[in-house]
What does this fold into?
Amino acid sequence: MYVCEEKSMDELLIKALKNTFNMKKEDAIGLAKTVEKIFDGNKEVEDMSIDKYARALFYELLNEKLLKLRREEYKEQGKNMRKYYWSFNKPKIEKEASKKQKKELYAIYHEIPEKVWAQRLSAQ
It folds into this structure.
């Protein structure tokens, strides 16, 4: 079983987003704030209560298993109906938050200014 030191969900989500999507910390913070605003402190949020842009984001997070989607079936006026509920996948978020961010293999080349590359090419 995985044991994680006690951290708030927002800290874990920020780290999980940063590691999963190889994001800058500022971007992960912004995304985490957006997701938490949608949840508004609730454990679940009904799918019909979110807009299409949030839903697209949630499906992206679902693909990475950071969110879960639960379906509830019921009858209303003789018709079979369904409701969907989003929730955090806390074990997966904790797992991703604890990973070390992978360094890009050739990241050093991105640090070399274009001017240097141009000089090198013209010298050949």
Q: What stands out?
A: The radius of gyration is 20 Å. The first helix runs from residue 9 to 21. Helices lie at 9-21, 25-39, 52-63, 90-98, 107-111, 114-123.
